[in-house]
């Protein structure tokens, strides 16, 4: 399928409103995954080793590490803000441009109704969205 035939061919708008909604567990978006690079980056920010970070803040489910701290969705979401924003995981950097969101009905019914930043602010061109989907990049 080419970019031209996709529902976001004219781009999509997104600017984070700081709601923290994407930081909360919901339905299938159950975990904030933390790859080795993610863990390392946050560990450096917190002044600890990756190993110590992994033991303190993550859990492994189905072979993948995800952030975990008792009952909280994310241990770093405090007082309505991300306390590790500069080093946040790739998953957080790329919201809302996740592969599973790139279906018109999902975008319309789930993302737009859930996230106050979706559909507003900065216009991401289709090419930029494709790049984020492919390489991760950063949603600013
Ligand atoms: S790391 Fe930050 S942006 Fe990611 S889920 Fe936690 S609080 Fe939200």
SSE inventory with pairings:
Layout: E1 12-14, H1 36-46, H2 50-57, E2 58-61, E3 64-67, E4 77-78, E5 81-82, H3 90-94, H4 104-114, E6 118-124, H5 126-135
Antiparallel strand pairs: 1-6, 2-3, 4-5
Helix pairs in contact: 1-2
This protein binds iron/sulfur cluster (SF4).
Describe the structure.
The protein has 140 residues and is of the alpha+beta class. The chain has one domain (3-135). It is built from 5 helices and 6 strands; from the N terminus they run βααββββααβα. It has helices at 36-46, 50-57, 90-94, 104-114, 126-135, and strands at residues 12-14, 58-61, 64-67, 77-78, 81-82, 118-124. The strands form 3 sheets. A two-stranded antiparallel sheet has the order 1-6. A hairpin with a 2-residue loop joins strand 2 (58-61) and strand 3. Helix 1 (36-46) packs across helix 2 (50-57). The longest helix has 11 residues, at 36-46. The two termini are 27 Å apart. The model has no long low-confidence stretch (mean pLDDT 88). Bound molecules: iron/sulfur cluster. Iron/sulfur cluster binds at residues 23, 32, 74, 76-77, 82, 84, 88-89, 92.
